[in-house]
Amino acid sequence: MNALQPIGRIRTPFATIDECPRNVRALDPAPACAVEVFEPYRDGLHSLESFSHVILLYWLDRAEPPQMVFTPPFDAEPRGVFATRTPHRPNPIGLAVAALDGIEGGILRVRYLDCIDGTALLDIKPYLPSVDAVPDASMGWLRS
Amino acid sequence: MNALQPIGRIRTPFATIDECPRNVRALDPAPACAVEVFEPYRDGLHSLESFSHVILLYWLDRAEPPQMVFTPPFDAEPRGVFATRTPHRPNPIGLAVAALDGIEGGILRVRYLDCIDGTALLDIKPYLPSVDAVPDASMGWLRS
User: How far apart are CA A141 and CA A118, in angstroms?
Assistant: First the structure.
């Protein structure tokens, strides 16, 4: 398994973990965020601007060693790490579906990121509703 | 950036890259796939069974060095790598939204994986339609 390499940097208004919002979609207006793609990778953005949403993968460098079972905030029951979206995971790769508002000079303007400013970008994938959108998926214990 | 560690193994009926389907959702019946989670990580599956779908991240170990711009199969135009879901990416992390049919003995029964048998598993995240589902997202050049 090869090493990961940062391909860019995520810019958000959240300077510390404590400032990162729990539910960024509840904020109005949505905080403006940006994704800076490093120069060697910028040609890879060609024709991405016609997608309305992207999936971003990033490295959660502040993650702590994971606990396999823990009681999440605002929950009364212990849950397995893979039944939560905690950053403290065996492989701390963060994922966000972001709205893409524009691309200019290797910088994507996006909404709905809740990670810390300066987070290392690993990948950008176009969001494909035919395979990525399951609006009627059941949310398990989060609904219980 | 820490090294990645495999936390399990994905089992599919596809022994070679050529056998991997282009559109796995078009297959009827859906090929039965499985996700074997290695023993040290199995407790992390607690309470995952109540979710109907999961997001799987995995390592595309057959990926070739990426081209920033290339003409995808069945396309006439060159596209940027980040506007495609090709496995040949700067950080070859694969992503799939899979239907979760059951969990037993550290093994998840799932549908809708199109990766090669034996692929290294990196992460399992619960699928949350409130943040992951954008059914009306526009698919950019794929619709054009």
Answer: 32
| Helices within chain B (DSSP H only) | 129-132
Q: Which CATH number fits domain A8-128: 3.30.70.270, 2.60.270.50, 1.10.486.10, 2.40.30.70?
A: 2.40.30.70
CB-nearest partner of B53 from A46, A84, A137: A137
**Is this structure's pTM higher than 0.80?**
yes
**Structure tokens given for B82:** 């980040």
Q: What is the 8-class DSSP label of residue B51?
A: B
Where do the domains of chain A lie?
Answer: 8-128
Q: Quick one: CA dihedral A82, A88, A92, A93, positive or negative?
A: positive
Structure-token pair, residue A59: 């490295």
Size of interface A-B (CB pairs under 8 A): 235
pLDDT digit string (tens) for chain A, length 144 residues: 668 999 999 999 999 988 888 888 888 888 999 999 999 999 999 999 999 999 999 999 999 999 999 999 888 999 999 999 999 999 999 999 999 999 999 999 999 999 999 999 999 999 999 999 999 999 877 764
- Which residues in chain B have Cβ-Cβ distances shorter than 8 Å to A112? 131
Answer for the pair A112, A28: CB distance below 8 angstroms, yes or no: no
Q: How far is CA B110 from CA A77, A101, B12, B96, B129, in A?
A: 26, 34, 10, 11, 18
